[in-house]
Automatic annotation (TrEMBL):
<keyword id="KW-0808">Transferase</keyword>
<comment type="similarity">
    <text>Belongs to the UDP-glycosyltransferase family.</text>
</comment>
<dbReference type="InterPro" id="IPR058980">
    <property type="entry name" value="Glyco_transf_N"/>
</dbReference>
<feature type="domain" description="Glycosyltransferase N-terminal">
    <location>
        <begin position="7"/>
        <end position="243"/>
    </location>
</feature>
<dbReference type="GO" id="GO:1901137">
    <property type="term" value="P:carbohydrate derivative biosynthetic process"/>
</dbReference>
<dbReference type="Pfam" id="PF00201">
    <property type="entry name" value="UDPGT"/>
</dbReference>
<dbReference type="Pfam" id="PF26168">
    <property type="entry name" value="Glyco_transf_N"/>
</dbReference>
<keyword id="KW-0328">Glycosyltransferase</keyword>
<protein>
    <recommendedName>
        <fullName>Glycosyltransferase</fullName>
        <ecNumber>2.4.1.-</ecNumber>
    </recommendedName>
</protein>
<dbReference type="InterPro" id="IPR002213">
    <property type="entry name" value="UDP_glucos_trans"/>
</dbReference>
<dbReference type="InterPro" id="IPR035595">
    <property type="entry name" value="UDP_glycos_trans_CS"/>
</dbReference>
<dbReference type="GO" id="GO:0008194">
    <property type="term" value="F:UDP-glycosyltransferase activity"/>
</dbReference>
Length: 474
């Protein structure tokens, strides 16, 4: 019998130049290329990013996942080592966006070489679908943020007209307060920008062909998915699941084992993990307040600290990998009940350890999902951009308590200590733990559901006329 010829679905992925965006794109690529329910269609992925991002990911390439370097044009103060948000000083973020925008013709040339069937792109590159359309390639927006945050910002940025955001739990205050927040944290315009900050998200959503894919699951975010679809004139929102990543094989192995041995010696549910994302760097004042708050709480802790690169070439100035924390921590701070880690930490492994009883977090979307996946309640301390929406959603789900803040990014040590104690040792924490355990089952079920990835494949195949090759689920 003649063997059935298998057709290829070639997908180019173009996430924003940030670890928190590349990681879920890469996890989706793994699932797209390894899923067995695509019928006679084999999926191959080309993931495009800068050499600064791809260097540490080389081991993640496979026969069906290939990395394609995008070289950004040279701009002052932005050497190639800083063509990534990892360790990027905040003052250079507008410069990185400008350099990425200027790379549009080079990205188009890559599409000419790769000749993909479909492009999946991120929200900061609304020009990417135009480059694809010029070559007859359909493009779909893939959001690594929650549907709640995406719909909220689309609402605030003008897609809603005069309507009030329908989900009260997500609101950040009065309409005036929300507008001020948007101006302060989302729309910091760069005079030299090629694309207005106000336009990036709305254009990316509007230019998505047929549907918008979101890293989420309907069991948690159905109301926000529905409202986002409404804002986009009925465009369908396709969930692709939590896209949880196994972090057991990355980073500093010796450091990881040291942390795990320390956790082994702690009482069950007694430790708080404090970590605030891979792209946020606390100020000296914030570090001092956090150090005092953790100390005052009396709760054992693992605190992950991160710092920007400070040298012109983008290299770390610290010789031993710990000098940044040593310089930044308050004089006299000697954590007898905890560990201070600098840089990377095995977040999922720590959260899944029996000693971990709470997660003091900025509530970035991946961190919220990882906390829910571990069944660990959150102490929410949002610091910028979409994090207040993640904190609101986690609290509305019944899995988080808030650290009081008069303004986002400002907090008192006493409030940190009180919130941590309440979640780890108080009655409130017991209720949050029960609810987190319930949500753990929801997240696990959705992360294991290959049907969502299969549905995304069918949608992409439909865009490029290869739908007949995709298996239809029973």
């Amino acid at each position: 019998m003649a063997q059935v010829e298998r057709e290829q679905l070639s997908v180019v992925m173009f996430p924003w130049l940030a670890h928190g965006h590349i990681t879920p794109y890469l996890e989706l690529a793994r699932r797209l290329t390894s899923a067995a329910n695509h019928g006679d269609l084999d999926v191959t992925v080309h993931l495009v990013s800068t050499p600064a991002n791809l260097a540490s990911l080389a081991h993640r390439q496979t026969d069906r996942i290939r990395f394609v370097p995008l070289h950004l044009p040279a701009l002052p103060d932005l050497p190639p080592a800083l063509h990534t948000t990892k360790h990027l000083p905040p003052r250079l973020m507008p410069v990185l966006k400008r350099a990425c925008d200027l790379a549009a013709p080079r990205f188009g040339a890559l599409l000419d070489d790769l000749r993909p069937d479909v492009l999946l792109y991120d929200f900061l590159q609304p020009w990417a679908p135009l480059e694809a359309a010029a070559r007859g390639v359909p493009a779909a927006h893939l959001s690594t943020c929650s549907a709640a945050a995406t719909s909220f910002f689309a609402h605030l940025l003008g897609a809603s007209g005069d309507r009030v955001f329908p989900c009260e739990a997500m609101r950040l205050g009065t309409p005036e307060e929300e507008a001020k927040y948007t101006e302060l944290f989302v729309l910091r315009e760069d005079p030299g920008a090629l694309v207005s900050e106000r336009d990036r998200l709305l254009l990316s959503l509007a230019r998505s062909s047929g549907f918008v894919a979101v890293k989420t699951c309907a069991e948690i975010e159905r109301p926000y998915m529905d409202y986002l679809s409404e804002l986009l004139g009925g465009k369908e929102i396709v969930p692709v699941g939590p896209l949880l990543v196994d972090d057991s094989g990355g980073g500093d192995t010796a450091g990881t084992e040291r942390v795990m041995r320390w956790l082994d010696g702690q009482e069950p549910g007694s430790v708080v993990l404090a970590s605030f994302g891979s792209e946020y760097f606390m100020s000296e004042q914030q570090i001092a307040e956090m150090a005092r708050g953790l100390d005052l709480s009396g709760v054992p802790f693992v605190w992950v600290l991160r710092f920007p690169k400070t040298s012109a070439g983008g290299e770390d100035d610290d010789d031993d990998g710990h000098a940044g924390a040593a310089r930044a921590l308050p004089r006299g701070f000697a954590p007898t009940r905890g560990l201070v880690l600098e840089g990377w930490a095995p977040q999922r492994r720590i959260l899944s350890h029996g000693a971990c009883g709470a997660f003091l977090t900025h509530c970035g979307w991946s961190s919220v999902m990882e906390s829910l996946a571990a069944g660990v309640p959150m102490v929410a301390l949002p610091l910028h951009i979409d994090q207040p929406l993640g904190a609101n959603l986690a609290a509305d789900l019944g899995a988080a308590a808030r650290v009081p803040q008069e303004r986002f990014g400002e907090f008192r040590a006493e409030d940190v200590a009180s919130a941590v104690r309440a979640v780890v040792r108080g009655e409130e924490g017991k209720a949050l733990m029960r609810r987190a355990g319930e949500l753990r089952e929801v997240v696990a079920r959705n992360d294991a559901d290959g049907a969502m990835v299969g549905e995304l494949v069918r949608r992409m195949a439909r865009l490029c006329g290869k739908e007949q090759r995709v298996a239809v689920p029973n």
